[in-house]
Amino acid sequence: MKYSTKLLIANCIPILVFATISLIIGFMQFRANLYDEKQANLKSTALAAMALYSSHGYGDYGRKADGNIWRGMNFNVSEETSVVDDLKQQTNVDVTFFFGDAAAMTSIKNQDDVRAVDTNALDHIKNFTLAHGAQLWCRSIKINGRTCQAYVIPIRQESDNAVVGALMTSQSMSGFNRIIENYILTTAVTALVILFAAFLFIRWYVARFSQEFYDATNKSKHDLLTGLLNKRSFEDEVKAAIANKKPTDVSVLLILDFDNFKHVNDHYGHQIGDEVLKAFGLILERAFRTKDIIGRVGGDEFMVFMPDMTAEFLRRSEEISREILHELAVLKVGKAEHFSCSIGIGTDAGNYDFKKLYRLADKALYESKERGKACFVRFSSDEVHD
User: Where are the domains of the chain?
Assistant: First the structure.
């Protein structure tokens, strides 16, 4: 996996986890607040309905022989359905008046358009409100088969404050659920837009950082003048190539030492000397394969490692050496010309490590200088022994 990909994942995962946790916490908090708001709304509606009933009649509640519920002598609760209907029209909240555990008046209608209340909360109303006079908040109950929310308050007699019934305000949860669904949808879309924008920014930042990191790493591996590998990077790559070579591969290492480079600097100046070294680096890059490892390992000393070579192609290193000597001979930089180098070639078909191969190529280089420079010498491990 690329470094930039790892960095992108490392930056995105914490943000994604944090955003997910924040969304969950935010949803739970919103849902809790919405329940609290709904409870307060139904409670205030119940108290308002109770106050409205109280203003219509005085005295105690009682059931007459005809089955109707009266308050005192002038308020027939069972027939005053306009009260609950008007309240529902204004608040969109259903109101049900219980006398005992029977619904005496309600704005709720069943599928047959008949006023009726069938709820699984009746036992709770009996046990909490009718028995103990406690107010009751139902977050989720069934009324006529629909899931609803309800708030129940006790109805007390004026004479002895005894609980004779209950008043329930209720509302379908369909609207409540739609609010939650809209909240989730809106929040999710907003979060996705923000996360996508954050992802684009992080990707841009990671790409920029990775490029800067790559450039810095690349600079640390390469010689600033020629752009070739520096000594340490060259040795690391060669060691890795030798460790991974096939048993049939032949290791080839060339050491190229510029002849009389001090003379170039002394007579033409260091600027010309630098230009000559850069030109030499370009000659090496043109002469060798793209998979060959080329490095500047000293002031005027260069090395080349040729991986994946076979015994049949060993002569190619000598051909390339001739080409390099010719390129240097015709090279002209400013007024400086007629350059040359000494080349030592070490080849081994065994299990030589980098140090042994280097010593072999170094011996070949020394021999080429002994022969008068401007030439190459190749030594094989079969010919020279440590």
Answer: 3-178, 231-380
